Amino acid sequence: MTAPTPQTPADHDLVEAYRSGDERAATELVRRHAPALGRYLYGSGAMAGDVDDLVQETLFRAFRALGGWRREASFRSWLFTISGNLLKDEFRKRKGRQMLPLGDHEVADRNDPARDYAANEAEERVREGISLLPRLQREVFLLRAQQGTEYEEIARALGTTAGAARVHYHHAVKRLKELVR
Amino acid sequence: MTVCEQLSDSMPDIALRRRVWSAEEETHLTACADCRSEWRLVEIAAGLGDSLPASRDWNVVATGIVGRVATERSAARIRRRGWAAAGLAAAAVAILAVRTARPPLQLPVPVPVPVATVHAPPPVSSSTTQSLPLPELDGLPVSQLESILGVLDASPDISSSLDGPAFDDMDGAELDRALAAWEG
Fold it and tell me: Least CB-CB distance to B48: which of A35, A43, A59?
């Protein structure tokens, strides 16, 4: 996450600037958070080809409802919460929780294709495993393991306690690490 | 907190390259298969999505989103105005309906008078006129009402036929009959 410095205004300043009509502030918010949002959505089970649309839809929903950001959690965590709701809607639309087909991931053309293939296979197993977790476990796990968010911040974003978030994380780890042994 | 738990807490930061393993942690990791499998998992999770195409033109994306929000807001404003206009129209219709449901303006109503006084009717107070309930006449246009008055004035026979019970004492059927007689 981008820490505010004199050169980089804080998210809430950008939000206020956008609400006052400064569209450059919106561009900065998008540039700052969209890549992490895309990774989060992909990690949550979105297909690679859907990620861009989902990122844009999440950001649209966020900008439309900026008044709903209470600053209890960071702007990014709030975006992740919105994207979680969006994914839930998508899962429901598709009549199932799983969105990613195995093999959705492109195999990178590197020097050791066999190793890359094994790595990609493990990644797909983990991604599938994550997508099958209960929602709270999935969100806590990704916020912690993929985004490096502290438990206190996770708790604020997801409306739980830091202790409960830690428990959810360890439950998720217990279930998922069997997939990478 | 056990060493495994300490390592577990450190793993996301190390996977995201915010810090590195200490010598002690590395030693434990080498010896503990459970921590190694968790580390492998966290490494993979931290890298999820790294292979997604990164070169997006965020200016274009942001412009699209801001434009979409603006469009939706103006559409919502128009919708709100539409609802307000519809509400006003509905209120106007309701007021109109209430007004038209009220008894219409009290038009002059033929007053039953005794035959002897038909040709020289005594002055009738307006309050007497207004107190006569003849709802059957309410729906008639002015021209018809005037023609009824004309017939009454010109036909002492009909007028005399009215010389009987007061309209107040008639029931609906009797009034209907009287009206039918006037209208021929």
Answer: A43
DSSP secondary structure code for residue B115 in this structure: G
ipTM of the complex: 0.82
Cβ B48–A126 below 8 Å, yes or no? yes
- Quote the CA–CA distance of B35 and A71 in Å, as a whole number: 35
**Cβ within 8 Å, pair B58-A31:** yes
Judge whether A162 and A173 are in contact, CB under 8 Å.
no
Using CA atoms, how far residue A152 sits from A149, A159, A162, in Å, is: 8, 10, 5
**Each residue of A8-65: pLDDT tens digit?**
899 999 999 999 989 899 999 999 999 999 999 999 999 888 899 999 999 999 999 9
Residue to substitute from B7, B36, B66, interface A, most A β-carbons within 10 A? B66
How many other CB atoms are there within 10 angstroms of residue B94's CB atom?
A: 10
B7-62: per-residue pLDDT in tens?
999 999 999 999 999 999 999 999 999 999 999 999 999 999 988 876 678 888 88
Full-prediction pTM beyond 0.80? no
Window 56-75 of A: residues touching B by CB (8 A cutoff) are: 56, 59-60, 63-64
CB-count exposure of residue A111 (10 Å: 0-12, 13-18, 19+): exposed
Q: Is B51 on the interface with A (CB under 8 A)?
A: yes
Mutate to test the interface with A, among B16, B17, B60, B65 (most CBs of A within 10 A): B65
